[in-house]
Amino acid sequence: MMDKNQVTGLLLIMAMLLGYQFFLAPKVEPEKAPEKAKVAQTATVHKVATVDSVALKAAAGDFASAAIGTAQELVLENKDIKVVFSTLGGKVKQVLLKKYETYNSFASQKKEPLVIFDEAFDKVTFDLPTTKGNVDLNKLYFTTASKGGVVAEGQSQKVSFTLNLASGQSIEQTYTLGGEGFLLDQDVKLQGLDGLLKNESAKLNWIENVRPTEKDLTENRKATVNYLLNEDEDFDQLAETPTGSKEESLDKPLKWVSFKKKYFLSGFITKNAPIQKAQIVATANETDSVNIKTLRANMDLDLADLKSGKGNYQWYFGPNDYNIIKNVAPGFGKNVKLSYDIFLPITRYVFVPLFNVLETVFSNYGLLIIALVLIIKFALLPLTYKSYVSMAKMRILQPELNAIKEKVGDDAAAQQQAQMKLYGEVGVSPLSGCVPVLATMPVLMAVFMLFPNLINLRQQSFLWANDLSTFDSIATLPFSIPLYGNHISLFTLLMTVSSIAYGYYNNQNTPDQTGQPIDMKKMAYVTPVIFMFVMNSLPAGMSFYYFVSNLVTIGQQIGIRKFVDEDKIKAVLEENRKKIAAGGVKKSRFSEYISKQMKAVEETQKTQQADPKKKKK
């Protein structure tokens, strides 16, 4: 019975899983031309520049005085991130994560920090609705007296950018960075611009061309847009699909919008008034291996807040690490997909805290996973023991079950009725072996959801796997196998072999099931092979967890078998039979249920025998 439910549980997992799933051109130096030609060329360039200047000023309207200038950069950094600002737009130009690298950098051992935001692939416009048309602040030149620098831990530092127009008219943008962490505050204030602006929303338009940071390109293409509705703090997202395009119009106020990649996150968060509405889009660029996906969020901001000094926002540029982001903003921790909601408590209150504790003990994550398995498996040992004892009872009853089969023949209904009567006579519930197994299923599902989203394993090596957060590959095939891929994961193979070994061991100790439409013992060998296809491209850390878990489970079963005396169990069953027959022991709920069902069947049979017409009906 235990074997049947284990296989059923694994099939359930698979059903949920399957439902689930540079260019730098060399510069050519021009040949020296005669002096006349050089003068003519200079004149031409000057003429074009003049035309461009006129066009820029015309487009800027009342902000024409700030349309021309020279961009200057300054840097603000702490121990975690480095932020490059530009006076062109008074904006963030680039953000580097100091402690993280892309997979290519990691694999080639070229230590380069990961660039999470860059104007080369992040396009941000901040449009103000003026009486002469929209003006993008990021195309206007600001001035600054700030110097930037390194922020000490426990401190914070500001940089300010100012755009002055006529007397009393100005735009000020101030950024604040703490001495640690990945949050950057942005405060925007408009002063004296009432006569220049229309009573409409300001628009923040953000586009990111996602670059691959991980080994698996398909996983990289699952980047998406997440958001939180302000009113009821309802988290939602565009579907994480590696193909096609997803789009949604959000007409309700939002607290924040984030661009979520595999292990990294960029987010725009409101501190006062919410985002009024937004249009979000995620489009996979299936033929592009550089800009693999395009994420877009067009957001409407309340202009009144910008005028009153309440334009207070935050940007998050950093790892999608639950321990770091859970307190950034309401619901922001949901950017990490820890688990399905039904299993979330197990992940949040068991696995995450355990990981945090074990990380203080183990620096090697392979050893950490082994320790995690041991803790979980020994915590579940009472259930494993109970399931084994129930299976032992079924083995003891097997001769009587075989006798029933010989007596009633191939009549499945009669077989089942006789079996239920036997279980009631000895006080055994066949479900007692299933419940402990099913109780472990949430743990299996929690692991399956957590490991692919756990940044802790990123670029952590163990044995032959140089990165436990992605698949380990010991060989690359010259062809691709459907649902399997073009590589061979050794940890997945070991998991498969150990699952088959466990199935074999279990089959030797599990009684044959009568009246089953499928040979469940054969399924114990088929299921691991099917599961191998599912797991081959998933994180090596997860395959290793299941492999170690299988070994520990087999060890527990062998150990329990030495302590379980089946002769004593048989004696207990016989004693139960006598007591139940004599009415000297209270029947279990299952026995009571069986008795009622048996009486109902007997009454029906008597009625049919007494009145043949009812039998015909």
TrEMBL record:
<protein>
    <recommendedName>
        <fullName>Membrane protein insertase YidC</fullName>
    </recommendedName>
</protein>
<comment type="similarity">
    <text>Belongs to the OXA1/ALB3/YidC family. Type 1 subfamily.</text>
</comment>
<keyword id="KW-1133">Transmembrane helix</keyword>
<dbReference type="InterPro" id="IPR001708">
    <property type="entry name" value="YidC/ALB3/OXA1/COX18"/>
</dbReference>
<feature type="transmembrane region" description="Helical">
    <location>
        <begin position="365"/>
        <end position="385"/>
    </location>
</feature>
<dbReference type="Pfam" id="PF14849">
    <property type="entry name" value="YidC_periplas"/>
</dbReference>
<keyword id="KW-1003">Cell membrane</keyword>
<keyword id="KW-0812">Transmembrane</keyword>
<keyword id="KW-0813">Transport</keyword>
<dbReference type="InterPro" id="IPR047196">
    <property type="entry name" value="YidC_ALB_C"/>
</dbReference>
<feature type="domain" description="Membrane insertase YidC/Oxa/ALB C-terminal">
    <location>
        <begin position="365"/>
        <end position="561"/>
    </location>
</feature>
<feature type="transmembrane region" description="Helical">
    <location>
        <begin position="428"/>
        <end position="451"/>
    </location>
</feature>
<dbReference type="Pfam" id="PF02096">
    <property type="entry name" value="60KD_IMP"/>
</dbReference>
<comment type="function">
    <text>Required for the insertion and/or proper folding and/or complex formation of integral membrane proteins into the membrane. Involved in integration of membrane proteins that insert both dependently and independently of the Sec translocase complex, as well as at least some lipoproteins. Aids folding of multispanning membrane proteins.</text>
</comment>
<dbReference type="InterPro" id="IPR028053">
    <property type="entry name" value="Membr_insert_YidC_N"/>
</dbReference>
<keyword id="KW-0653">Protein transport</keyword>
<dbReference type="InterPro" id="IPR038221">
    <property type="entry name" value="YidC_periplasmic_sf"/>
</dbReference>
<feature type="transmembrane region" description="Helical">
    <location>
        <begin position="525"/>
        <end position="548"/>
    </location>
</feature>
<keyword id="KW-0143">Chaperone</keyword>
<feature type="domain" description="Membrane insertase YidC N-terminal">
    <location>
        <begin position="75"/>
        <end position="351"/>
    </location>
</feature>
<feature type="transmembrane region" description="Helical">
    <location>
        <begin position="487"/>
        <end position="505"/>
    </location>
</feature>
<keyword id="KW-0472">Membrane</keyword>
<dbReference type="InterPro" id="IPR019998">
    <property type="entry name" value="Membr_insert_YidC"/>
</dbReference>
<comment type="subunit">
    <text>Interacts with the Sec translocase complex via SecD. Specifically interacts with transmembrane segments of nascent integral membrane proteins during membrane integration.</text>
</comment>
<dbReference type="InterPro" id="IPR028055">
    <property type="entry name" value="YidC/Oxa/ALB_C"/>
</dbReference>
